[in-house]
Amino acid sequence: MAESWVNSAESLGADLHLELSGAGSRRAVLMRALREAVRSGRLAPGTRLPPYRSLAADLGIARNTVADAYAELVAEGWLTARQGSGTRVAQQVAPVAPVGRQRTPARAGRPAYDLVQGRPDPAAFPRGAWLASARRALTLAPHDAFGPGDPRGRAELREALAEYLARVRGVRTVPDRVVVCSGAAHALRLMASVVGGRWAVESYGLPFHRGLLADEGVRTVPLAVDEHGAKVGELGKVRAVLLTPAHQFPTGGPLHAERRAAVVDWARSTGGLVLEDDYDGEFRYDRQPVGAVQSLDPDRVVLMGSVSKSLSPTLRLGWMVLPERLVDDVVAAKGEREQHSSATEQLTLADFITSGAYDRHVRRMRRRHRRRRDQLVAALAERAPHVRVSGIAAGLHAVLELPPGTERAVVKAAAWQGLAVEGLSDYRHPDVPADRHDGHDRRDGLVVGYATPPEHGYAGALDALCRALPPE
Ligand SMILES: Cc1ncc(COP(=O)(O)O)c(C=O)c1O
Questions:
Q1: What is the pLDDT of residues 430-450, one digit of tens each?
Q2: Alpha carbon distance 244, 292 (integer Å)
Q3: Which ligand 1 atom sits closest to the C-alpha of 309?
C-alpha cells in the first residue's frame, strides 16, 4: 500500500492526517499510521477518532479492516472504546514530544511569583467585550475583508486609530499615514530596513529591541538617561534616535518638555528621524497626560504603538504613524502579504476602539494598575523605607533603587523567595562604559512589573519582594 496523506474524519469536524505507506497488510499499515499519530502527539489523549465507516470510506479500504485495526489498538492500550463515546485515544499513552516542540520543562523550581515586567495580567483580558467586537466586526465585514487586503492595514482600523491617537495622545495624523503592523518590534524592523545606518538608543532599554536592530544591520549607540529622560543634547552623528518619551523604559521618567523640543530641533537641523516608542502612553496616574512628541513635528517623528501593554502582547497588533514621505517605503518593506495582520483581528480592534470598549478597558486597567502601584509603594514604605522607588507616575512597572553592588545578590535572594524579578542592569546598553559615573548611567536597581501577577498572587509577590530587599 503506498498512499500518501489522507484527510478524514468529517464527522469529527476536523481533519485526521494519516500517512498510509510502507509494507504490510492494509490493517498493519493503518495501525502503524495511527500509532505514529498518537506517539508523535498529533492525536492527543482523549481525541475522538472517526467512526470506522467514515474512515474506511475516506481511505478507500474495507470497513472491517478499520474495525479490526481499532480493535487491536484498543487491545494494545493505544485506544479506548466505550459505548456512546466512540473510539478515543487513550489517556495514559504518553506520546513522545515531536522535535522542535518539546514538552514544557519540569515545573520544579519555577518561581511561585512573577514580577518580571512586560505584560499585563493575562487574566485581565476583556474576553466578553473582545468577543462582542469580533462578532460585530465579522457580521458587518464587507466581502473584500476576505480578499487580498491593503498592505497598510484595514481602512476601518487606520481610521479608528487616527481618531483615537489624536484624542488620547495628541497625535497629528490622517488615516493614510497610519500603517498597521504586528507591534513595536515589527515597526522597528520595518524602520531599520527603511532608515538603516547608526541609531542612538537610550542607555537603558529593551535588550530585545537592541538585538532586533542589530539583526537588521543597525548599529546602536547609547544615549545617557537621567530623571528627565534621554539627554538628547548629547546626540551625535546618527540617522535616527529611538526614544520612550512618555515613560522612559525602564527607568520611568517622562522626557522633559525642553528635551522634547530639542530633539525635534535636532531632527530638523540634521535630517534625522525621531522614533517614538509610545508603549504605555495610556497608563498615567499622578500627572497630567504627556502627549506624544509626534505632535511637535509629524514630519520628523514616527510614532509606534501597540496593544501589547493595554490588551495582550499575543494579539500582535500595533501601528506606526509615519511622515508622509516614508509611507510608501514602509509599505514596500512590509511586502505583499507575509507580514500582514489578520483582517478579522484588525476589524475587531477597530470595533473595539470605535465602540468605546477600548477606552473603558484602559480606564479599568488604569485603576487596577494604580491600585497595585499604591500597594507596592505602601509595602515598601512599611517594610523597606530605605529603598527608593521611582518611575511610578505611569506605566506597568517601577524601579527600586538599590545600593551600588547589591543588585545581583538581591535578584538571587528574590529567587530564593520564589520570586522572579529582573535587575536594572539587564536593560543597560552593553556599550555604556564601565567607568561612567555621572550619577545615572550605571545604577543598581530592580525593575518591578506590578501588572504581571494574577490578583490572588500579588500580595504574596510583594511579601517575597520585601523579604528579598537588603536591610538598611
Ligand atoms: C519598551 C517597549 N516597547 C514596546 C513594547 C511592545 O512591544 P510589542 O508591541 O512588539 O509587543 C514593549 C513590551 O511590551 C516594551 O517594553
A1: 998 776 555 457 789 999 999
A2: 10
A3: 14
